[in-house]
Design goal:
Blueprint: H1 14-27, H2 31-47, H3 52-60, H4 65-73, E1 79-80, H5 81-87, H6 92-99, E2 102-105, E3 108-111, E4 114-122, E5 125-133, H7 137-140, H8 154-162, E6 168-174, H9 180-186, E7 189-196, H10 199-211, E8 219-223, E9 235-240, H11 267-275, E10 280-295, H12 300-311, E11 314-323, H13 325-335, H14 344-360, E12 363-374, E13 383-387, H15 397-411, H16 415-419, E14 422-425, E15 429-434, E16 444-449, E17 456-459, H17 461-469, E18 471-475, H18 476-487, H19 491-507, E19 511-513
Parallel strand pairs: 6-7, 6-9, 7-8, 9-10, 11-13
Antiparallel strand pairs: 1-3, 2-3, 4-5, 10-12, 11-12, 14-18, 14-19, 15-16, 16-17
């Protein structure tokens, strides 16, 4: 069976896809157009999966073509054929039916897929597409099918924003789903390969690539599990939003292709971290999202750190969130469409199965985070595991790329080499001083980063003084010598105090090389 004809996925007839793209553009069916029709209150409610305000807003704008498209493709209501014909004058309702987007029943039309505008900003700039996926439970009123093809969710958006966007020759989107990461990657790479175990997902990815006008010679889709479809090829960048949800393998527990990897516990994330190096070119980067178990008697970084060690790669893992087993179970049971209101008995059974599964491995928490790996050109030099749970400034991709470059720059320098450099304070860094009323000297000095990870670094007297003088005029060594004399402790003592911290500030982007 061709990927174009995967059951339930739209077709990619070039003439009809071009007509659809023209009609949606002419109608103004974009993110701004949808929000204009809905208004802020209804738009925010719809983001929370509450359709009532959106239904009321679009009913009030019944003659508006964007309202007709919203009701059809976002809310899943039946739409009078005449209204959809007005919204799609070039494609026509018949053409939409031939593409597999809608089904027609007399004078009424109902969507077969979710088709929505997508706008975002990644490290390469702004993007503006339409993304097709399966209708969600908001539109269908039913639990998701196990082969459900998910649209752009929060995890997808996060990965797109944290991915490095420098030019790459050959990119792999592992577990492509609806194809959103592949579309982002296509803007800064010569060729993209997307893989997925789901034939239906690949069908949607092909359609979305066609809607984005992506040249087929630069975009290839392959069916298969994990790295099997691409071995023994090598890629300069691998991105993956894998099916990382930790789901009990209990009989009767539904398994969803888009989120459940079919492994016990967090094995799929471990396998990917440990194995992705096999398809990375030297210097190549892999970035993925994942969940990991935090078991009794160990820290999260002990477990994930052992995976990094086994990978043979440079590694940087940022844990962004930690949930307890009950929170985690509730999140993912609801995600599959089972709620205590809809089916109290099934909710209780699945909740118990999830808790039993975690208890069997002494799981006390489940971490979520961002993993950045790199195949070293020489010896491994980067092993970093940290927890950053505060607000970050997206897109993070440029900050991650800059931090990798800063790490390499620092790794090549002895302290004597660093002393000869000139540094400047990054433009987004501010200094905060906290004083007791009436005390002339601050008790705490914080260096706060306005962008990137939004880091706050507490600085002692010497470090605060050092950073305050970093304007590119004096070398690091000259500043250290001056501080040694000013503080009457000697240059060596200041260097021992300041240089390790200065390296950290450079690595994290609070200080920058002047040249």
């Amino acid at each position: 069976m061709a990927l174009d004809t995967a059951p339930g996925a739209p077709l990619t007839d070039p003439r009809l896809v071009a007509a659809l793209r023209d009609d949606l553009t002419a109608a103004g069916y974009g993110v701004a157009g949808v929000e204009e029709v809905l208004g802020a209150v209804a738009a925010d409610a719809l983001h929370r999966e509450e359709p009532v305000p959106a239904l009321r807003a679009t009913q009030a704008a019944a003659d508006d073509v964007v309202a007709a498209l919203i009701r059809t493709f976002l809310l899943g209501t039946t739409t009078p054929r005449r209204m959809l014909e007005r919204a799609l004058p070039t494609l026509t309702v018949e053409g939409a039916s031939r593409l597999g987007l809608v089904e027609v029943d007399g004078d009424q039309v109902r969507a077969r897929v979710d088709l929505r505008p997508y706008a975002a900003v990644d490290g390469g700039g702004e993007v503006d597409w339409w993304i097709a996926s399966d209708l969600g439970e908001l539109a269908t009123g039913a639990a998701l099918r196990t082969d459900h093809v998910l649209g752009v969710g929060g995890a997808s958006t996060t990965l797109a924003q944290v991915t490095v966007r420098d030019e790459r020759d050959h990119v792999l989107d592992l577990g492509t789903g609806c194809g959103i990461q592949a579309l982002h990657a296509s803007r800064h790479s010569r060729r993209v390969v997307g893989t997925d175990i789901s034939r239906r997902a690949l069908g949607f990815a092909r359609f979305n690539a066609a809607m984005a006008g992506l040249d087929e010679s630069r975009f290839e889709l392959r069916e298969g599990s994990m790295l099997e479809p691409v071995a023994p090829e090598r890629f300069d960048l691998v991105v993956s939003n894998p099916p990382f949800v930790i789901t009990p393998r209990t009989p009767g527990m539904p398994s969803y292709e888009y989120r459940d990897g079919g492994r016990s516990g967090d094995a799929i994330v471990r396998e990917l971290i440990e194995g992705v190096g096999a398809v990375l070119a030297p210097g190549g980067v892999a970035q993925l999202l994942g969940n990991w178990e935090v078991r009794g008697g160990e820290e999260w970084h002990d477990r994930v750190g052992s995976w990094l060690d086994a990978s043979g790669l440079d590694g940087w893992v940022v844990q962004r969130e930690l949930q307890d087993p009950a929170q985690y179970a509730e999140t993912w049971i609801r995600d599959g469409g089972t709620t205590p209101d809809r089916d109290r008995s099934a909710w209780a059974v699945r909740y118990g199965q999830w808790l039993d599964d975690f208890a069997s491995r002494d799981v006390e928490g489940i971490g979520f985070g961002i993993v950045t790996l790199r195949k070293p050109l020489g010896e491994r030099s980067l092993r970093r595991l940290e927890e950053v749970t505060g607000t970050v400034r997206q897109p993070l991709g440029p900050s991650i790329a800059a931090s990798l470059a800063a790490h390499d720059w620092l790794a090549s320098m002895t302290d004597d080499d660093l002393a000869a450099q000139r540094l400047v304070v990054a433009p987004d860094v501010t200094e905060e001083r906290y004083l007791t009323p009436g005390d002339p000297d601050p008790q705490v000095v914080l260096l706060r980063q306005g962008g990137g990870f939004g880091r706050a670094v507490q600085a002692g007297t010497a470090l605060a003084g050092f950073v305050g003088v970093c304007d590119g005029e004096l070398t690091v060594g000259q500043i250290v010598n001056a501080l040694g004399a000013l503080l009457e402790v000697g240059a060596d003592a200041v260097a021992a105090d300041v240089l390790p911290s200065a390296r950290g500030l450079v690595r994290d982007g609070l200080l920058l090389p002047a040249d």
